[in-house]
Protein 1
Amino acid sequence: MTDLTSVFHPGAEPGAADEPHTTAVAGAPVRGGAREVLTFLARRPGLVAAVGWVALVLPAAFAPGLLTSADPLAASPADKLAAPSALHPLGTDELGRDLYARVVHGAGLSLKATVIAVLVGLLAGSVLGLLAGFLRGWADDVIMRVVDVLLAIPGLLLSLALVTALGFGTVNVAVAVGVASVASCARVMRSEVLRVRHSLYVEAAHAGGARWTRVLVRHVLPNSSGPVLVLAALEFGTSILSVSALSFLGYGAQPPTPEWGSLIASGRDYLAVAWWMTTMPGLTIAATVLAANRISRMLDGEWRHRG
Amino acid sequence: MKSSYRPGRRGRGRVLAAWLAAVPLALAACGQAGTAETSAAGNAPRAGGTLTFGLSTDPISINPRGAGAGNDALYVSRQLVDSLTEQDPATGKLIPWLATKWEASDDARTFTFTLRDGVTFSDGSPLTAQSVKDNFDDIVRAGAKAPSSIIYFTGYKATEVVDKLTVKIEFTTPNAAFLQASSTAALGLLGPSTLARPVEERDVANVVGTGPFTLDHYTKNSEVVLKRRKGYGWAPADREHQGDAYLDSVVFKVIPEAGVRTGALQSGQIAAIGSVPPQNVQVLRSSGYTLVVRPNPGNVFSLTANESRPLLKDVRVRQALAKAINAQEVRDTVLTPDFAVATSILARTTPDWTDLSGALTFDVEAAKKLLDEAGWTPGADGVREKDGEKLSLVTTWLSNFGPNQSALELIQQQLSKIGVKLELQTYTVPELLQVYAKGTFDLAWGNLSRADGDVLRTNYSTAGNNYYRIDDAGLEDALRGQQSTADGAERAGHIQRAQKLIVEKAHSIPVFELTTILALSSKTHGITLGADSRLQQLNDAWVS
């Protein structure tokens, strides 16, 4: 069976109209040496900054101890509401806690929630889209009508309703945000599947007697997942915003555990006396969202189409 | 077009705006120099004009009996209704208002009021003994639909009209706190046109009283507009100005965000704001705003133990918590000097308060010793444990007072030093009532304002809701004792005994007193707070 596929693999028929999509991630750095990579990056300082920022934020999420040794919960009333300084790079809050330590430790919960949200949206959306596009018929109708209904409800509103039903907590917020993004993933996946399922190599696999599950997993899924993965990277940015929005409204972790959204919320009453309490976590969120968007643009074939 | 900058009219405006914005900053930099607690009122009061007041929450219901949004709702409804008596904020004593004199029987079951002659409701009907009877019967009939008022009517028997201006209220059980209750807005008298309507129709309209203002309109989540009542002539003696109010109208604007409220005052859009957040007090004070400050009477902010939980049944654990909380540090860190460290479970401004600060000392070593004695040993992660169980306590709280969260986070840190873990859980009011009813909490954070020691009975009596599952015969005896006697000195003795028992047995751990803070622009004068530390009727208020 594998032999048959390779015969009809895109490389063998470069002129085919429905050339299967190869994901940029997989196809990127194969061609071209280190020099080409450097030129590519040198022309895109924004991308370098984005990758650099993410490289800084990710360790904060999973090993905050690497970036700060301060305790994010230790109150020190004598140092309350101190402006940013060498000792406290982002200042201190109303109890004298180091804001830098709180932002770093807050990255953990906020980014883990975002990852869960994106995974929920990506997995559930992909499976639904794949089934709808591949099976067609009544399965397609049922799934896509449900997706239409989901799309009709504004995402944040849907998340709010879900988190109210599920109860407070970081994981619940993540699931609620993830479910709200299922619909768009399912749509993109379905359209890709519809494109791929009539291509020659898929029909050949069918003709060769492959089971439909095998055709689905070996041929349709890998060739239709590219745009969905790019969407997931883009979704990462919007999910950070949604997770932070729900946390800002108080649906996230209970105090004193820091989250980016709740840090902004607790600082807003102090805006007149301590601007850094909202501004610093706010800038952190903005930078992370922008970085995620920039990287998702890179994944969307920027390397392949480089000039 | 070239983009050259021409300092035209708009440009000058912008420069001026920048200067104006810089002025408060400069004043703030001067620090203490500009404190203006009493702004230069100087000139005589002027009649006319409109006062715009920023409220922190939507009143929800302006029916003084209703389940409105607490203080902010009462700020509004107090302007519409008068009460039988007035509690003088300066002395805490009751003085005549709609009743010229009153009398309580020795067993505190019968109260006779003699009404002032010539008082009318704003719908034109006269105030008579029958009006009082209709009002009180209406409250009892409404029951749970009049939550703020019904709590004062436990054991209500009947109201008897003795003659046109004399009315007698009878209870089957003693109710010594009823006299003070007669001064609250919750028992303010409503006119017949209001009473004729079902309770549900009195939330946003149809509230008619004898007060110095009448309701023009109330738009939910936006504003309440009141107009001056013509021919008002029965203000109590603690108001400087008798007769019609100075102001033509009062507009209460709903501005929930604290920063926006402060900003609206600073930019001159509104003349006065309530619920000034502590962190803005210094800035406002030093830039020339008048602050109206009054400590709230009643139950101070305290942590109350749920004694049905095995962990807190042990009095030593509760006492250890009390000793490990550094109330002074909490006050100094999250509040301002306007707020006092608690000296008893009652605030200093409550009648019959007694100073128990000697029993409320901060002593970490003593706290550790108490926990050692109770068998709680430090665990590996620093949290104490006993028989495999961690000393971890779920604490409920509401976000109705801005600094609550910061205060609790600090207390959490203080308690972690003796190996006690505090888990904070916040709820909405209806959710919290369910949690209380089910008893699924260890500690509850909160306060309750009322200018009478009877507030302790509401919170800690086993006969009431008893949310905290307190089982203390001595305390119950004191709480019933104060309710059963009309003799002031004897009643004070009971209330003081109750405070002592609550503090010494650490049924509830007092931390700090709530203080109500209003901020007024320099053109606003004569706004005061009543004995309950809520906005007083605006008879004396005027704008220049």
Protein 2
Amino acid sequence: MTSSSLTSPQDAPAVQGRSLWQDAWRRLLANRAALVSLIVLTLIAIAAVFGPLFLPWSYDQIDWDHVEAMPPDFASGHYFGTDSLGRDLLARTLFGGRISLMVGILATFVALTIGVTVGTVAGYVGGKTDQFLMRFVDLMYSVPLTFFVIILMVFFGRNFILMFLAIGAVEWLTMARIVRGQTLTLRSKEFIEAARASGGSTPAIILRHIVPNVLGVVMVYVTLTIPNVILLESFLSFLGLGVQEPMTSWGMLINDGAAELEINPRTLIIPAAFMTATLFCFNFLGDGLRDALDPKDR
Amino acid sequence: MSVLDIKALDVRFANTDGEVAAVSSLSLSVEKGECLGIVGESGSGKSQTFLAAMGLLAPNGRTSGEVMFGDTNLLTADEKTLNDLRGDKLAMIFQDPMTSLTPHMKIGRQLTEVLVRHRGLSATFARDRAIAMLRRVQIPEPERRFNMYPFELSGGLRQRVMIAMALLCGPELIIADEPTTALDVTVQAQILDLIRKAKEELETAVILITHDLGVVAGLADRVGVMYAGRLVELGDVRQIFKAPRHPYTKGLLACTPRLDDATGGTMPTIPGQPPNLQNLPAGCAYHPRCPFIMDRCRVERPPLRPTPTGSLSACFLEGSPS
Amino acid sequence: MWSYFARRVAIGIPTLWAVITVCFFLMRLTPGGPFDAEAPVPQEVLNNLRARYHLDDPLWQQYVDYLVNLLRGDFGPSFKYHDFSITTLIAQGLPVSLENGFCALILAIVIGVPLGIAAALAQNTRRDYVISATAMTGIVIPNFIMGQVLILIFGVWLKNSIFHLPAGGWNDGAFANRILPVFCLALPYVAYLVRITRGSMIEAVRANYIRTARAKGLPFRLVVLRHALKSALIPVVTFLGPATAFILTGSMVVETIFQIPGIGRYFVQGALNRDYTLVMAVTILGAALIIAMNLAVDLIYIWLDPRVRYDQQ
């Protein structure tokens, strides 16, 4: 038993005016690892989105004066040097980050949409629908889904849209399970009863009352899914199934760099450092969010 | 000779907003063979006081003061010393029998491990002793239950198992933390009866923590009433029921339903809200709810003082030269 | 208990059938085939090829034939390695992958679970932070980077020292050739297990019955090992199912980097070559493996939590 159980819920005056979200936000900012992660992520995202606009070289432009991989050189504007084809490494890393982050966010959004829909419907409607949907999820769990993503990428070509659709279609399973669990506990709550008693339709109740209340858990899971997707994309790039040249992503840059690891480690280390930092931050942020929204051991 | 002697005990919990005082300068003692009832609302610090004595506080809990058990100060004793006492001379029964037994271990093993730990008994001896103890706490077919898992037993039976576990080594002190709260009313009486028998037959001292005055009335010799982490009244059980001194105790007694209540009116309640430990009122913590409030109650904290009935009470109504 | 087990098996079989069916039609209905890769082939040759592989039969006929052959343990001929049947390829590759996967799994459990427990019991201390941060590193660094780095260190930099390890190849499963791939395969796994064990152990020691066990005077170590460990292991065991899938995916990477003739590499090559039958065979095997692992998980549950035994009757 901790001190939190010593204070009774009626002590409203002491915590007046602090909503659940404000409270969680305050706790999140108090968590140093999460706060630093949030700042670093914001910086990386801003750099990836706007950075390329301010660089002297674009990601696919070949500097014919430096076609060999070149160490950082400020005079020619290659702040991180160039790759083996004479392309600016910083520009490529930032542009690759744009693609990696975009795939991560879009695929997670796909997973989120499917997962929340299936989870809330299964949990709220219950009965046969629930059984059917959850059986299906169980079934999907015993399928080697990465194999299917690879098969899809091979047979339908390396297509950017298909990539995040396919990854999203793989990642929704856990989300659906978690959301269903939350919905089940919500369903028996009084305010849902009240909404039902006052004649709310099922979709309306799900949208207006269930979804907002599962948002916390979903947000934690989203933060932890994005890095998974970025990893999966880099894995596809490693197999040569990622985005197509001259487009690039962190995974592709790392893969290119790995090939030159012995002669030119810089081309591996720089994109790898960006990607690893991003993954770290997402994971720390996710852990921090979970603690902030579920203050069990406060 | 007192079995347990608590002097100026403070229990605090560190959290993100600073520290919360769960128990403040609490002193009391328990005599051999005596049953001391501790009454209070949830959050009054009654459980934390004795968890602190057992060395079982949550990791963020801090203590100061002194809890003497024989010659040992339980607050400063090392883990080894505590472990030698716990389960042997010092036993505890917890509130919720449904979750207080390890779900994946058979009852028998959970009992015998105590004897193996403290008495060094062999498996067969331990088994015999454990089954004998199960019989003693009136568990039917003890040989069969011995090989069962907790989830195969009812709540009442599980609490009997907990009691058997506490009695195995013949402890000098049993701390029973709300032993009947999670149980049916009929089972409650049986469990209390078991505790009474243990106390009488083994001359064990019992500390009975509860929010239910009825439980205390049936079993305790003395009663301590706690409010917001402090002892507000302490005295003989009959005196306290007959002539409560502290306004909070009076309030509690007035709220207890009585079968002989002929008025047939509504149940009285104590107005206001239980105290928030994070934000205690200055002076006497009970003053916002007290019907006898005086000016000095808002600024000054009343000490625990003797009263004409022999009880101790922490209220300015006592001894004020009026 | 056995009826419970039988029911789980009964769920597994239709799952496998569904995987086979989806896989089959996905393969046959996608544009492009195994033979339209390089230089254009004369129509006549193409027809001959299609006839040889029964690709000119009606689709349902092909499907039924495939299922029937599968029941006989025959995965059909490879579209690319003309002289091999898929069954032969699998018979060569599967043991290699299984051995590596199994070694990695054991290694990961032996390292990951104790580390997770150590971190949990020292929650929010320096030891916890160091272990957790290291585990996080294992999760965020993809094993294709890790593999390359390991090769660079042990295969290149330490070439002339006693720590030198082969940078690749299988060499019929020589011990030295296994070390790096198994380690590389196990690493992300170790990391996940540390995180899962840490979380579940923190949860487990908060249970009321842990307080009871401590109140009995049992030493803390014994309390953890005897009373907390079993319930803390439930999420760890649950992870074994998905972990099989991870190992399969990981074997694609590791076998490609270290040039090991296992089914992971076959799958990658098969996919890139559009070798339908090979890709299908590996996918089906993978699904069978995951299903089998989930069954094993169910059996371990029964041991970990006796309630399961009774609830299902």
Protein 3
Amino acid sequence: MTEHFKMDAPATDRRLDDMAQGLVGAPLDRPEGPLKVSGTATYANEWQVDGMVHGVMVRAPTNSGRIVLSNRDEVANLPGVLSVIQDERLLRNPAQGTANQAPVQGAQHAAYVGQLIAVVVAESFEQARHAAQSLQVVLENGELMPVDPVTAAVEAQEDQALDQGDLEGAITGAAHSVDVTYTTPSHSSSPMEPHASIASWDGDDLTLRGSYQMLKYNRNELADALGVHPDRVRIISPYVGGGFGSKLGLAPEAVAAAIAAKELGRPVSVALQRQQVYEATMRRSETSQRVRLAADAEGRLNGLGHDARVSNLPGETFAEPVLQASHFLYAGENRQMSMELARLHRLCAGSVRAPGEAVGVTVLENAMDELAHEAGIDPVELRLRNIPEKDPESGKEFSSRRFRDALESGARAFGWSKRPGVMERREGEWLIGYGMASAARINVLMDSQARVALQPDGRARVETDMTDIGTGTYAILGQIAGEMLGLPRDRIDVVLGDTDLPPAAGSGGSWGATSSGTSVYVACQAIRRQLAERLEVEEQDLLLKDGRVTYANQTKALGDVLQGDEIVKLGYVQPGDTSEAVRQATFGAYFAEVAVHAASGETRVRRMHGSFAAGRILNAKTARSQCIGGMTFGIGMALTEELAFDPRDGHVANHNLAEYHIPVNADVPQLTVELLEERDDWASPLQAKGIGELGICGAAAAITNGIFNATGVRVRDYPATLDKVITGM
Amino acid sequence: MRPFEYIRAQNPNDATQSAADGAIIIAGGTNLLDLMKLEVMAPDALIDINHLELNQIEETENGGLRIGALVTNSELANDIRVRRNWPVLSRALLAGASGQLRNKATTGGNLLQRTRCLYFYDRAMACNKREPGSGCAAREGFNRILAVLGTSEHCIATHPSDMAVAMRALGAEVETLKEGGTTRRLDLDELYLLPGDRPDRETVLEPGELITAVVLPAPVEGRQTYRKVRDRASYAFALVSVAGILKIEDGRITRADLAFGGLAPKPWRDTQVEAILVGNRPTEELFEQAADQLLAEAQGLGDNDFKLPLARRTLVSVLTELTQEARI
């Protein structure tokens, strides 16, 4: 009953275009939306499990040394307290996305301020919190470890180095060149829902209600951390209140809840406090990026260099993949790239909102703007002149790539031709500028499985452990199944977020919709073939619509074809040769109008537009929302967001939503999004590509380039807060 | 949060009695409850004054306004008299917090909110305000949002209120009730203390003393504005703010009431700045002189150095705005 599909050749049949139900692409509402806005979708920490008690985790107050809980007995005797647990299996930091095994563990030594080194469990949450706050954590033999990425020791990442042609020579002979270094700060995912888990054991079987993005990996990570077999672990995560990368890998609270629940023989709930979300989940690494560009008199690139320094904790291999899109976005035969990883004792660095391109494309796009200004070429025109014919390093063809169209169409939609000259336009005390930037993000297909059951009553059920982190999975999987099986959307039930269901790719890396959607498509194709067999026709000759089957000039109700039978198929997609045969990516362009206050240096984005191409759009509403979300985070990256670290011990100083400045409504103007129609046969049989992260991959540069247009000030140290703007004014 | 006793005040004297006995007064609770959850404040008892009749806005005999301590920030900002006659106050209120917080926060509570210094909120860090004598971790830490005027070596916290800055410019006074029933009036300069060597003492209010109202003097002629400069457009504390009331007659400034937020441990007012302006024609040079005076003693500690040029630019910009018509 398993239907395997390996993506070894382009899917030129474009079967979705042959279907009649009209669901795929339609801007349908998310079916779980009303539950979420009415408070009836049950999030991880909202379950009321019989006999449940509460755990609150305890942080390390400094960044090295052996941890001693000096008043442990006293705290253990506080009212309601059941246990003070300092277990060697507690996680030092969360698992990286797709790690599939436990990260570094241990609660005896601190590696960074905020590391969660114990959990205090009590009958009530308030008792547990008070007890946790009363616990005195003393560090023995500790000395402050390095926390500054500028002075910390670095490790060159040889596997990321590139040396093609002669960049130095190209720069020397260039008509126009730039050599600029930009820095970006650490960012926090800042999901609204804190990381939370409720663990319940039934004998040796563990059920964890959690808030996670990639359940099949999370199950293995949790089992590995606890030292139990993965078959003993079930994770349930039907609703996730935002993840943005911070819930890709297993986080400390899950292991703490599981250990405590086992010890006490009662279900235990552990939710991270807001401060702990900032201190002990994942940060995006700060980056220092040098970009060198060499161009001829017409602005055609013949050299491109990108050298980055990022950081992480000792022992962590993740290095923010800053260079990812620099490899293919622009032409230039002489290319040089390198990456350094600084080792320091800030919280763990991992995937946060489009790791790599979010900051990498942004800085590349700032450098392109500097080159456009230097060469006196319109920034859009400069990019158009530098779209490479083939991948400039591997020589591979691109799959679908409406990059040129996005630039041109976006410029028209925005009114780019009215761009003022630098410091030319002023309205009262506000200086007005336009900026633009390109968008690019790699496209990935991952292993994913889904079971689809076509039921005798003409309904269908889709089951997979895929998650919906607010992105629209419930909506689109139902749309794909309905399209393929000819059923209205309200006759499809989509069940997600349970490791008892077939393992999916999970939500992350923008691959969730395409990968899990393809598994549903594959299962539905198998169901269609079985229906065709029953009717003794070819699958291509079936027309399924509104619960009826039309074939060979006949029409029947689905129920009459099924005759009481249920058809169940497991769709299983795997990436194949097309991943390597061509360069696959998504593209776009951003345009922003900004106003900078001449006295205070405050920047307000007045309007912003994005044109994007990401293959077939599965749901025009959820796709647009993803892009708007990305552009909003782009505003944050450009203007407000920065994890502020204390220079002495590296603790996160601004560890709450009041002081870590995510853009609020007043910061976000009307955002317009254009989704360009596209089919990418190389990406998946859906001809769809990932769109989840595309909206942030360069967005901030459109704004900071706009600040330059308005003021003549280049802020090369993100975010462009007012103090940096007025310094140049 | 530690367990605490909850007492509901039946009348104002009841409240002052409990407060004199050590209870902390709670009104909107928008700041106090956060502090209690973090155990930065851990009172044994709370005395709840929300049911007292302190929620009226009344006109005073001399044309001013008496604002009950429990009037919410939203009610006060939207009061038609305030909007018409004391617009700087309405603007300041609306520049603060978020709609939800303003619906809950009260006039008295707003005046007495605690600093937003990040080190004050972090019990792992030394803080003389939280724990006298423990030191100040903020001085050499991340001090971007902290004060450049009126500080001491013991504390560089800012007072976070926008409302209080406007009230300071307006010359508002608080009315208080002490234990035993005596009342007094204090202007905001008298109310707030500078940190000196006891940053834990923030006001002159005695144990048990309850703010019952804020009294605004009669409206004055002139233009008013509140300019708040901040890191994001809403829900962010002021980096620098200026409340200004300015009157021009025959081309000369005849009134200049200016108060500043984001710079100091209390809503800042410097009469010498105003003295430089009054009697003179509005020119950019004059405004720069006023800024020189404002910042004569100002001192940054690194991350907050930018507040000096920012305060200068903002003051000049506000004065320019308030004198624009006269200069055309």
Protein 4
Amino acid sequence: MEIQPNDFRRMSVEEFDTTKLLAHASKQSKERGYERFPIVDVDSHHYENESMPEILEYLDDPVLKQLATATARPNAKNARILNTMVGYQDMGGRIPRYGLRSFEKTPAGQTQRDAALTKRWMDAVGVDVAVLFPTPMLALGVHPQVEVEIALSRAYNRWLCEKVLAHEKRLVSMLYLPFNDPDATYQFVKEFGEKKGVVGFLITSTRYRPVHANQYMKTYALLEEMGLPIAFHGSYHWHDQAQGMLNRFISVHALGFVWYNMIHLANWVINGIPERFPKLKVIWLESGLAWIPFMMQRFDNEYMMRTSEAPALKKLPSDYMRDMYWASQPMEITDMGLLQETMRVINAETQLVYSSDYPHWDFDLPSTIYDLPFLSETAKRNILGGNADRLFNLKLGTKKLANVA
Amino acid sequence: MPEVFVSRIDDFAEGDRRIVFHGGLEIGVFHWQGTYYAYENQCLHQGGPCCEGVIMHKVEDVLAPDKTWLGQRFSADEAHFVCPWHGYEYDIRTGECVGNRKLRLKSFEVLRRGDDLYVVAS
């Protein structure tokens, strides 16, 4: 097979191997001494669509299960019950791992393929524990059928818990919440909150439900009581009427991944959710960092003039934001001075958590944090692992689980 | 200065490339339109193996004389190699990062000795 004139360390397409692709990352791990401290990746992905036949087996509704299974034929990897997004993440073949992934071999045996592939890149990069999320299901929040969102996400959660998390001490997850149905959202927390490897819950941000709606308060209360964080994960949606005005994927991606989190963050803070649930930990994923000082300045400035419209607040909007956690990727390293100031205003040493987003096209290696000239060694280790260790109560301490040989 | 063997000339086809190693250094050598080019195989972004990515011609916008947009095309002249990690593109003739031409990969001299090609790894 020939797809492009590439030369992956003399690999043929059939021999594609993540360890070889990431050989330079492994070299970075050794050069920077990652064996000295743990690294936690709070936002990484697998392609759950490639395990869809297994996942569909976990559907309870016999009619929906028959429908989903039947529409998946003849290629079950493209289950048509799952809505998909228009988009070009692989840049027209410029990022070859998208096309080559299916050729990568994993050892036959006990380890589930997604887990085997994930641990392979974790070792190459030096990551000890990864918080694993799906990929196409990031768009499930705009599926036209709420009942499908509930059923499919529950099947996925059950599959992930039983097939992956139960067996892998280095893999954890914040499980999908079917946020378009507040009651199902609450039930999911009760059903899955104490499962092995579940360290919190996830709201895929691309959806049209306001986070301050009264129907969600019981879920926030339950999460707070259980000590489990809630996370918002950005993504794009080219069918959104505003994003539809953008004609290139670069524009949709750059703005879309921040857009929904901006909406949710605004509602979260201005409606005083942090005052109602002061111990509920909140994490914002895959929106980068540059938007945070914008939101802080924008809302502090308006709040000082329109205080009466946010009567629940007892301090500035930015002060609530400083209590939140921020995942680093995709970290905008284009102006070192701006990045340094951004890290200062968010108290990065305690509130920033490293995320790779691997294997997606804009992943960040740990070196994006470790090589920053303005961070102390303590700050680097906190951001790369210590903060997440405490946030998720992983009890890693100084343990190193990755094979950084 | 160390000269590192790249290939016999007859074995190095037009459009092909080699990755050669010297100590901890990796060098990508390209045979492109009758000329040999050699660059450090380390992306200026996050250190990816940039010389091992796909080679694609530059994408260009096509504008009419009245500045309206007509479409896109691939350049007939300019080709890029693309870092497989994140997509940083480099001009195969200069090693410049095409997103910001102030950034340029370290380049190396390619020597022909008889029927063989060498790169000067310094």
